[in-house]
């Protein structure tokens, strides 16, 4: 019989939990979601935001937690929208991002996720994962959410991939797998 | 002899201190700048960011403080860039904001500042100030900073006004004056 490990995932986002549970169960780790509303700070680096949140959440729930912070960084836009991807998605949306990119030849972008693990009163550990790709000229595909329809890898947008297909290459998968290997070490 | 009141302004921004000192001295309040690097959280409302920062800063410096949070809210862009105005200014800049606004007929925008006063272990008080204006079709003027060249009030951009002229109508002046009246009450 396999002994299952257990960890609290501090997040308000159900979809992140489902995605993470799917990935971590293969590594014998189960998750409980706690929506404790930890403060997300303003910072250019996802690591900084995840570390602040994980410390706060671990102190608040008084047990070890993981948090996730993710974003898309567009090279021609100096990394915009980066840590503010969720805010930019619901204010500007993909059509306006494409408008900003209209005359840009450099279409390189990175989608990144940082998982941060923290025990109460201990220093946190971060696990980054990323995918390199490019920004399309139009929205393509119906799967996923957020920037998925305008971010392509090998000529297929994340929204043109099934969940399983996306999960095999995703930034969050990479970050979670790094975390799981370290956690099970 | 007038008795001067004194308060700590928690900010990393020298220009904000100079501007505030100029306004508050007329109300017999002097300032000391402390750059304590309080955490700025991600939130849609400036009030929330200022309150979190002021509580933290008051606890950190162990005396009453004020903090300021400001931003420009463009109606056609669902309030973007709002609390992330500084980040958007150094990643996208004014030219790209104008590109986003190219075909927008609704050019209304609000420039807002929130001053938050907090004593250690007490609940903070906030003082908002705002200017209503519109987004121009091109950059105009050389004074000021940030979004000043693309935000106009009565057909003059903030960057076409002298500092004195801007100070008589500014969002930060309004917020600071409200604070001063309350502080001297």
Task: Please specify the SSE layout and strand pairing.
2 copies of one chain form a homodimer.
Chain A: E1 5-10, H1 14-25, E2 29-34, H2 46-61, E3 65-74, E4 81-82, H3 85-91, H4 93-100, E5 108-118, E6 125-135, E7 151-153, E8 156-157, H5 163-169, H6 171-183
Parallel strand pairs in A: 1-2, 1-3
Antiparallel strand pairs in A: 3-4, 3-5, 5-6, 6-7, 7-8
Strand fraction of chain A: 25-35%
Shape of chain A: globular
Number of helices of chain A: 6
CATH architectural type of chain A = Alpha-Beta Complex
Number of strands of chain A: 8
Overall structural class of chain A, as computed from helix and strand content, comes to alpha+beta
Helix amount of chain A = 25-40%
User: What is the largest interface, and how many residues per chain?
Assistant: A-B, 23 and 23 residues
Measured between the Cα atoms of the first and last residue of chain A, the distance is 18 Å
Oligomeric state as shown: homodimer
Largest sheet properties of chain A: 8 strands, mixed
User: How much is the average pLDDT of chain A?
Assistant: 94
CATH level 1 class label of chain A: Alpha Beta
CATH topology name of chain A: Maf protein
Roughly how many Å is the radius of gyration of chain A? 17 Å
């Amino acid at each position: 019989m396999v002994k299952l490990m257990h960890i609290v995932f501090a997040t308000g986002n159900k979809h992140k939990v489902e995605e993470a549970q799917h990935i971590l169960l293969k590594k014998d780790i189960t998750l409980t979601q706690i929506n404790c509303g930890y403060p997300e700070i303003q910072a250019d680096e996802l690591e900084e935001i995840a570390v602040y949140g994980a410390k706060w959440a671990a102190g608040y729930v008084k047990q070890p937690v993981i948090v996730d912070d993710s974003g898309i960084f567009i090279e021609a836009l100096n990394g915009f929208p980066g840590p503010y991807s969720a805010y930019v998605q619901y204010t500007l949306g993909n059509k306006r991002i494409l408008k900003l990119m209209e005359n840009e030849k450099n279409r390189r972008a990175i989608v990144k996720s940082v998982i941060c693990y923290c025990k109460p009163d201990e220093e946190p550990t971060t696990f980054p994962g990323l995918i390199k790709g490019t920004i399309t000229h139009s929205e393509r595909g119906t799967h996923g959410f957020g920037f998925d329809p305008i971010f392509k890898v090998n000529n297929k947008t994340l929204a043109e991939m099934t969940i399983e297909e996306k999960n095999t290459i995703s930034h969050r998968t990479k970050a979670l797998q790094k975390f799981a290997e370290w956690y099970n070490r």
